[in-house]
Structures are given as structure tokens and as C-alpha cells.
């Protein structure tokens, strides 16, 4: 089956939203207005105001002359776009591809989705019923192209479902504005008496281009499916993405676990077929009240082990709230990596401990957060801050060995911290130092070890490092930045020994 698109048109978007917030306005005429050229102009009117003849673009003073009791509210800049984005995110439960179509619409690529609802008609009915249940005055149409769906949604007067390959017949009786043309082009068509698409669609293309420019032909071709039209979804579509609609709302933990198990089995089978494993996965539950609950897990190595991944998710399921129930579950794998054949054999053998370690780290990370687990590898630098790097991959191999010819602390501060010291004479280690308000008297010291700046990376003073021990047995890595010959140097603490 080819592409299918749904266009949604919210005819009173911002005023419907305001009524949701203030239900007492539902039967009262009111408008949103904003300043324009020194006067207040209506930007949106609710249904009750339009029934009294008040429309957008009218001057507020003229509207009050028609209806003195009209309530005027200040327009909220950017509110329409914010609303459209929120509704488009909600529509992801119907399709993974939802795009904002400003100023008052949403475009959905529903290819391959309606059959999950039993066909396009029940699909569209369910979508509209839910949106209207939220209080929005919305129209919809479905067609092979985004342009045809938009045209029928805004100007169609018969049926909202255009059968495949029938967009031409649907466009013929519609006005030129249904092609989303500029005002200047519409005015030219109006002057020439071309009031329907059928009036000019069969004219020579050369004549249409010469008279109306390329845009008319482009919009016509897009609506007919002869020219592709790209819509930009509000959320990027993950290549590894599985959906599970629910026949009835799921409210129980058991139901959630069953849905998760099914999605994991489907996802992992695909990963097996493609020789890959996931490193990060998101399990989303779409509630019938519009709320979206989600759980995120990560692994230290690529995994497609259903039991292991289910266990990571299972620990977090109590943290989601079903409320009135979930109507759709989605499992995404935004980070996927290749799995070597040798690595895959480890899942079913007890001879290798790294799999057990990685699964243990996954479980710990699931409880306290993956950001709390770090793995460090040596890097080819002498400057201490650059002598190591952080990696999340358990299978990554170091490019060099850890330095063992000179002592190095177990824990190095990300940035050295300044301390106060007392030094008997230059080039001697400190007698005592103060760090975070605590006085440390040094009883043993070893050094100095001079480390020069890596001049090919950055400039700066050299450092003279000392390994010191205080009266309580604590061992620290201190350094002097620069030399006394260049002034009073500063002292820093940079690490802690075991």
C-alpha cells in the first residue's frame, strides 16, 4: 500500500484552548487581539463571536460597535505553535510521523497505521472523537498526498476519505486556495474567473508557468502526487521502533509487563536478524488522558537478550502511573551497535565473566542511573587531566598502558583545587596545607616530579608534584604551579591515594 496522509485543521485552536482553561467562556463571545499599526486587531474569535459576525482581522473597535459585551483577551505570542506541537506529540499514538502545519493544522503520515484500527474510517473516527473530546473544533481528511488531504480538509464538502489514486477527482471542484497558493496568485486567478481547480488544471503548463509562476505548478504536482512533498516530524523516527496498540486500556502492572515482553521479543528478533544489539532503549506508554509515561534503560554493551533487558525495565515499571489506562505502547532503541559473533556466544556460556559483569552494571545503572558508572582508560598524554579518558563500552580496548613507573593517585580531581600551604624554603614540599577549611600537617613527602605543559596543545606553567602523607594517614597528590623565581606560585591539590 502506498503513502497515506491525514490533515487536521483546528478552526478555533486558541479559543478552544482558552475554553478548556475557562469553561465559563464556552457560551460567551470573546476574541484574542493584538496591536497592529496602532490599533487592536482580532487574531482569533470563538464560535459564539463568529455567530455574531465577528471575524479575525477585524478591528476591535468595530467589533465592539457590533457587540458591546464582547470580551477581548490579549493574544499570547507563540501559543498557537506551542499548542500544535503538544497536539502533534499526542498524535504520535496514531502514527510515528506527526508534523506541525502552521498556523492551525497538523499533518500525519499514517501509512501502514489504519489497519490497526480496522480501516481508515474507524481510524479517522477514533482520532476525531478523541480530539473533539478534548474540546477542539477539528476537521480531518485522508488522501494519498499531503496536499490533497490539506485541500479536502479545508475546502471539501463531501467525504473526508479520498480513495487511493483518486485525488484528482477530489481536487477538481475545489477553489484555487485549496492548493495553498500565495495571495497574489489567488488574486490573479480570481480576476481571470478561474474559481475552481478544474478551470485551469488542463491548461498548458507553459502558459500557467508564464502567467502564475512555478509555485502553482509545484503545488498542483504535490497535491496530485507527481512531486514529492517532505513533512518534518516533530520527533525523529527511530530506525528501531516497535508499536503495540491496546484493544482495551491497560491499567495493571501485569498487563504492562505482557506488553513490554511482546515488544522486546519483536525488537530483539529484528536485532538478531541484523546482527546488532541495543545500548539504550525507551519504553513509552500513551495514556488515554493524553499523558505519556516512559522508562529509559541503558546497557554497558550491545544487548539483545530479552530476559536481561526485561529485568532492567521491570525494576522501573512501578514508577509509571497508568491512571485511566494505556492505549498504546512503543519501544524504541535510539542507540544500536553491531554485535560480534564471538560476543554473541558469550550469552550462553559460563566461561566468560565480562557478560556477567556487564549485566551487573546494567542492573546497578538501572537503580542508581547509568551516569553514576564510569570506566576509565589510559590516554597517550603526560598532562594528568589528559592522561585518561572516559568510555561506556565494556569491550573498548586501551590504546596504551597505565603509567606505573611513578606513583599516581587512585582518584584524580577533574580540575585541580587551590590550597593554602606553608613551605619552609623554596623547592621543598609543604609542612602543612589547608583544604576545604581542614588543616593537614604533613609528616612524609616525596618529590618533586616535574610535568611540563604539552606545548603542542596549550601553553602554561610547569607543575612540580609531591606525594604527601598527613598525620592521620591520608595521602594526597599536591603540586606547585610555576617556580618561586617568577613570583609567589600557587599550590593545588589534584588527587587522593588509597
From TrEMBL:
<dbReference type="InterPro" id="IPR043128">
    <property type="entry name" value="Rev_trsase/Diguanyl_cyclase"/>
</dbReference>
<comment type="similarity">
    <text>Belongs to the DNA polymerase type-Y family.</text>
</comment>
<protein>
    <submittedName>
        <fullName>Nucleotidyltransferase</fullName>
    </submittedName>
</protein>
<dbReference type="GO" id="GO:0006281">
    <property type="term" value="P:DNA repair"/>
</dbReference>
<feature type="domain" description="UmuC">
    <location>
        <begin position="12"/>
        <end position="152"/>
    </location>
</feature>
<keyword id="KW-0808">Transferase</keyword>
<dbReference type="Pfam" id="PF00817">
    <property type="entry name" value="IMS"/>
</dbReference>
<dbReference type="InterPro" id="IPR001126">
    <property type="entry name" value="UmuC"/>
</dbReference>
<dbReference type="InterPro" id="IPR050356">
    <property type="entry name" value="SulA_CellDiv_inhibitor"/>
</dbReference>
<keyword id="KW-0227">DNA damage</keyword>
<dbReference type="InterPro" id="IPR043502">
    <property type="entry name" value="DNA/RNA_pol_sf"/>
</dbReference>
<dbReference type="GO" id="GO:0016740">
    <property type="term" value="F:transferase activity"/>
</dbReference>
Amino acid at each position: 500500500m502506498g503513502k497515506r496522509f491525514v490533515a487536521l485543521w483546528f478552526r478555533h485552536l486558541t479559543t478552544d484552548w482558552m475554553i478548556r482553561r475557562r469553561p465559563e467562556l464556552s457560551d460567551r463571545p470573546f476574541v484574542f487581539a493584538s496591536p497592529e499599526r496602532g490599533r487592536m486587531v482580532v487574531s482569533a474569535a470563538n464560535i459564539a463571536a463568529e455567530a455574531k459576525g465577528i471575524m479575525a482581522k477585524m478591528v476591535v473597535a468595530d467589533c465592539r460597535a457590533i457587540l458591546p459585551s464582547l470580551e477581548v483577551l490579549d493574544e499570547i505570542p507563540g501559543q498557537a505553535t506551542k499548542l500544535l506541537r503538544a497536539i502533534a506529540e499526542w498524535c504520535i499514538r496514531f502514527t510515528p510521523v506527526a508534523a506541525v502545519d502552521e498556523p492551525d493544522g497538523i499533518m500525519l503520515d499514517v501509512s501502514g497505521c489504519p489497519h490497526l484500527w480496522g480501516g481508515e474510517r474507524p481510524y479517522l473516527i477514533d482520532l476525531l472523537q478523541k480530539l473533539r473530546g478534548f474540546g477542539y473544533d477539528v476537521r480531518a481528511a485522508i488522501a494519498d498526498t499531503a496536499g490533497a488531504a490539506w485541500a479536502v480538509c479545508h475546502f471539501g464538502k463531501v467525504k473526508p476519505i479520498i480513495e487511493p489514486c483518486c485525488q484528482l477527482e477530489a481536487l477538481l471542484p475545489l477553489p484555487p486556495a485549496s492548493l495553498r497558493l500565495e495571495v497574489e496568485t489567488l488574486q490573479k486567478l480570481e480576476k481571470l474567473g478561474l474559481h475552481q481547480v478544474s478551470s485551469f488544471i488542463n491548461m498548458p503548463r507553459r502558459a500557467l508557468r508564464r502567467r502564475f509562476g512555478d509555485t502553482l505548478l509545484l503545488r498542483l504536482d504535490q497535491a496530485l502526487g507527481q512531486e514529492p512533498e517532505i513533512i518534518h516530524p516533530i520527533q525523529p523516527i527511530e530506525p528501531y521502533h516497535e508499536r503495540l496498540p491496546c484493544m482495551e486500556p491497560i491499567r495493571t502492572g501485569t498487563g504492562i509487563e505482557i506488553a513490554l515482553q511482546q515488544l522486546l521479543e519483536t525488537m530483539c528478533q529484528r536485532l538478531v536478524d541484523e546482527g546488532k544489539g541495543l545500548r539504550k532503549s525507551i519504553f513509552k506508554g500513551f495514556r488515554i488522558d493524553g499523558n505519556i509515561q516512559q522508562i529509559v534503560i541503558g546497557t554497558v554493551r550491545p544487548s539483545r537478550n530479552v530476559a536481561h533487558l526485561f529485568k532492567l525495565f521491570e525494576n522501573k515499571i512501578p514508577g509509571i502511573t497508568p491512571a485511566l489506562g494505556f492505549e498504546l505502547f512503543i519501544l524504541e532503541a535510539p542507540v544500536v551497535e553491531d554485535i560480534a559473533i564471538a560476543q554473541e556466544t558469550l550469552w550462553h556460556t559460563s566461561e566468560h565473566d565480562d557478560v556477567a559483569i556487564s549485566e551487573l552494571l546494567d542492573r546497578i545503572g538501572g537503580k542508581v542511573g547509568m551516569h553514576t558508572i564510569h570506566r576509565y582508560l589510559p590516554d597517550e598524554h603526560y598532562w594528568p587531566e589528559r592522561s585518561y579518558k572516559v568510555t561506556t563500552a565494556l569491550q573498548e580496548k586501551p590504546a596504551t598502558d597505565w603509567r606505573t613507573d611513578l606513583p599516581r593517585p587512585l582518584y584524580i580531581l577533574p580540575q585541580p583545587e587551590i590550597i593554602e600551604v606553608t613551605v619552609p624554603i623554596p623547592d621543598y614540599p609543604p609542612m602543612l596545607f589547608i583544604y576545604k577549611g581542614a588543616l593537614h600537617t604533613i609528616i612524609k613527602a616525596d618529590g618533586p616530579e616535574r610535568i611540563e605543559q604539552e606545548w603542542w596543545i596549550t601553553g602554561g606553567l610547569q607543575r612540580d608534584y609531591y606525594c604527601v602523607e598527613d598525620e592521620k594517614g591520608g595521602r594526597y597528590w599536591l603540586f606547585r604551579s610555576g617556580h618561586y623565581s617568577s613570583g609567589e606560585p600557587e599550590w593545588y591539590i589534584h588527587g587522593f591515594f588509597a
